[in-house]
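cache lookup: miss for this entity combination. No prior model stored, computing from scratch. Input as submitted by user K.M.:
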Amino acid sequence: MIGPPAIDALFSTPVRIQLAAMLASVNEAEFALVRDSLGVSDSVLSKHLRQLEEVGYVKRRKGASGGHLRTWLALTREGRAAFREHVAVLEQLTKASLMPLDPRVGGDSSPQAETIRRREQ
Amino acid sequence: MDVQQQRDEAQRTLRTIHDAEQIIADRAHWPIGYHAVCALLVGLMVAMPGLPRELRGMAPIAIVFGALALKTWSDKRHGFIISGWRRGRTLPISIGLVGVIGVGLVCGLLAKLRYGVWWPFLPIGLTVGIATFFISLMWERALHADMERRRG
């Protein structure tokens, strides 16, 4: 049986979801840009990055640019797919929940819902 | 959590995602000079065979250094890298640019084979350079359209 699509728990914190959203828009982003944009410290960002790295959603690369060593972050293919799926689930939730799920609440005009309503009356 | 709470939570999260995407969109602007230098480098690459012998040897070095300088400047200014080959509206534009360069080089080679002269590469390089300038501008616009569409 196919159940409803699940929310990815790894994207449950605001920092991680923003981090993924930023990285999904680009190929690579610099650590400092992400840190400053999200308004977090190096250690907080590193902690969230480690969690995403452990499941293979994010990868880091060190690269020299303009005479400085910079850390570049990127979403992996799995990370991009997981983020896309997560956004799709959120969009589905905002749309699907416009209709009441419980037929007894009203609004559901399916024959099954009608039967339940009649039985309860 | 009831349906209404779930919906509100999902909407809040989507707003957070859109705000993060907006940070990138706000920074993804390249000055007109950047597009002009891109056009100059591409035009020079196509025009190279038509250059006088003494300049022909220096052109590849100038192109490589120019491209590296452009990339370093862009990475430093933006703090992110967006590939020309990313999926979306920018991809056909990138392919189109490669096509324009290819057609330019083939036309130059045909002129050489038919008339035995190299100079047609110069006007062809100029034409490809001008085309590159507008294609580069178009690429940036397509990128913003893509980002806008993602944010709904």
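stored under new cache key. The interface with chain A takes residues 3-4, 6-7, 10-11, 13-14, 16-21, 23-25, 72, 75-76, 78-83, 86, 147, 150 of chain B (CB under 8 Å).
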